[in-house]
Write a structure and sequence with these properties.
The chain has 94 residues and is mainly alpha-helical. The chain contains three helices and no strands.
Length: 94
């Protein structure tokens, strides 16, 4: 919404979070930060395909490798095991 109101120049988000805006032509995808192109965005370049210095390529490689892990949920080191059981319950039920 902030992008549509002109409050920000752009955003980084997931495809599922932006799909409605993409289909409504309310945003333009400039690049993809991923290991391979999304099937619906074949004409949009990967960040790793863009010209950049070697250091930039290394940073994109790190970001891509983190993206392959998905989203992680973490807690403090001394969190009781029961806390994690409660956090995992909704995930296991899907």
């Amino acid at each position: 919404m902030a992008m549509l109101r002109g409050e920000v120049a752009g955003q980084l988000g997931s495809y599922t979070g932006l799909i409605a805006f993409i289909k409504a032509k309310e945003c333009r995808v400039l690049m993809q930060v991923a290991a391979k192109r999304h099937k619906d965005l074949q004409d949009v370049p990967l960040a790793s395909e863009l010209p950049m210095p070697a250091q930039g390529k290394k940073i994109i490689a790190i970001i891509n490798s983190m993206a392959e892990l998905g989203r992680l949920t973490a807690g403090p080191p001394r969190s009781p095991g029961r806390d994690f059981r409660y956090c995992r319950m909704p995930i296991k039920s899907h």
